[in-house]
Description:
Elements: H1 2-18, E1 21-29, E2 39-40, E3 45-46, H2 51-64, E4 68-72, H3 81-92, H4 109-116, E5 121-123, H5 133-142, E6 147-148, E7 152-154, E8 165-170, E9 173-181, E10 197-199, H6 202-217, E11 221-227, H7 250-256, E12 262-265, E13 272-277, E14 280-284, E15 291-300, E16 307-317, H8 326-343, E17 346-350, E18 354-355, H9 365-378, E19 382-386, E20 393-394, E21 397-400, H10 401-405, E22 413-420, H11 421-431, E23 458-461, E24 464-468, E25 477-482, E26 485-486, E27 492-498, H12 499-502, E28 516-523, H13 524-535, E29 546-549, H14 551-564
Parallel strand pairs: 1-4, 4-5, 5-6, 9-11, 11-12, 12-14, 19-27, 24-29
Antiparallel strand pairs: 1-15, 2-3, 7-10, 8-9, 13-14, 15-16, 17-21, 18-20, 19-23, 22-27, 22-28, 24-25, 25-26
Helix pairs in contact: 3-8, 4-8, 6-7, 9-13
Amino acid sequence: MRTLRTxxxxxxxxxxxxxxxxxxxxxxxxxxxxxxxxxxxxTAKPAPRGLTKIATLIREVRAETPNVVLVDCGDTIQGVPxxxxxxxxxxxxxxPLGLAKxxxxxxxxxxxxxxxxxxxAMVLGNHEFNFGWKNLEAARRDxxxxxxxxxxxxxxxxxxxxxxxxxxxxxxxxxxIVGITTPTIxxxxxxxxxxxxxxxPGKDAAAKAVAEVRRKEHPDIVVVAAHAGLGRDARTGAPExxxxxxxxxxxxxxxxxxxxxxxxxxxxxxxxxxxxxxxVLLMQPKNWAMSLGRMDFTLDDGGGSxxxxxxxxxxxxVTVDTPVDAGLExxxxxxxxxxxSYLKAPVALADEALSSEFSRVRDTALIDAIQEVQxxxxxxxxxxxxxxNTRVRIHxxxxxxxxxxxxxxxxxxxxxxxxxxxxxxEALENAARFYLPCVADCSGERLTNTxxxxxxxxxxxxxxxxxxxxxxxxQRIRNLRYKGQPLADDRKLRIAINNYRAGGSGGxxxxxxxxxxxxxxxxxxxxxxxxxxxxxALPKAADGNWRIAPEAARVALEREAGHERGxxxx
Length: 570
């Protein structure tokens, strides 16, 4: 008996001695949108972002541990002009605006760089479809890694199908990455660009793919990589009201799909260093290659098979001091030069010198230019926008792409919501809070409300109105008219607003929860460039559809704006 006990103890000790612990590290990027270089093309200034800087962080982690898997969650081949100009060349065989094609544009710049970094997979994003089948197939050929999407289906004869998952064995541990793409692409994309493609609900596809990969491949870890957002408030579980139905389903996958260890995701341009829904670990890196996501899994094989014993995640931000990868920087040089030649090119004419200096005091042609674009693309009755940059000065004559882009500094998308006259009135009353009351002749008193950022002062187009600063807040909008008639509160209207306003930001709660009739796939700035490239001319003058009253208040506000000569940013 003693001999058997001794033998059992010896076997146990031997088993414990042979047990191994391994840490597998998953590195993640998402929504890079062509940001290969640390450069803001619209301001022509350096910026703390870009895959050339992310590459340095990747190499640092690989030097620390050999057990690394690297994936991207999509929206990679569309975005800044570095990619946009290249995609135009692929699609049309020439540079935009008739510019000369430089040498060295040999393959997609982002996918070439990602291949150099040995990415293991990339998930399809909605913007991968922006340029059509030809461009997407060309990008796939340039990638030395699979493009994943378990819920994107390709009709027979329409091209190669996409893999639902990829399985990698690293450090003896087998990890499966299941790709999911937001399925609402047909709501945004031109029909010709997605001909032959169909998209199924993300949660259903994830459940099917996770079950299949576990049955067929027996992975030790399963991670869903999704080009989709949470879709619900991370704390309360309440649905996000601005989402299109089925657009963002990460929360639902985490809550309702068995066998998932972690989810890495993107699409919404937010960030989440670490979060948990049940036992599922969540992480979202920042867009534009501004941070690298790191998810670590610790596994133990003491029981004869690998078991996850711990997991954690964090974000590694890019800073101004993060070095660039010299090799990738050289790879990007010809694409950079092509993009700069495009940005410097004239695309429209200004018949008069135009300025945004007083755009928060009176109606201006430059803000009307934004409104014109929004009304056209959203097919709206009324449009709201703000002045995001009061430093824009455009001389009479040719207007370059970069000058036009400076009007809209932010990457907002455009919504058309189903609204009413009351919604318009309440939005304008909220905007009027940007001003303080005008007492007597308004002299000697500051009239700008410094507690309210200038970018939250929205102006409307499609209606005529006055803002009377002699009245108290909530009662300042006078003579509000639509098509020459007083605007009734119950009048139904299609209203163009940006994605932040649709979420109720800046006090515009009247828009939150409104039915979204349409949402753009492109950013408003890019729509402006496209629109005026075709139209060729900016508005000559404002139509004067709104004004400040009394006249003494307008004069005082113009004096304030002239003294400050500054621009606020969102």
